[in-house]
Write a structure and sequence with these properties.
about 150 residues; about 35% helix; 6 strands; alpha+beta; two-stranded parallel ribbon; two-stranded antiparallel ribbon
Amino acid sequence: MRLNEGIGGLDVEGNRTPQRTSVSVAALNRAYATGRVNQFDGGLRWTPVIETRGYTDPTGDFHDRFRSWTMRERLVRANGNADNHVSVTGPAGAASAELQERALADMDAWLTARTRLAAAPKRSPGCRDRAAWPTAVSRPRGNGSWSG
């Protein structure tokens, strides 16, 4: 209870304030229902994100490519980069199922590579053999191969 009472709030710029923030329930429901709540901070700094999007821009669909760039910019703003974000746009409709299956396979390979990387021995200070230096992030390339 003390944590909740002393947690404070946010001003209109998103800066922390000592006072609690309040919102109308209707506005909050509307914000979540329309996808306006999406900060991409916190644990997403270390979480690989592979986003797939069917190309529906000409139809006026809300799920257009602009949302992909918005997502990427929010990651950059929150974390300083978007190294953990891959965005893939492909055909809409039933053809997008293949794209999603590929993305899932790529995500599995990406997480497997990161697990191996985390388990790799750390290089000692002064080690000049670059092959012994594990990279910070491994990331899928468009052709299914991996960098990092």
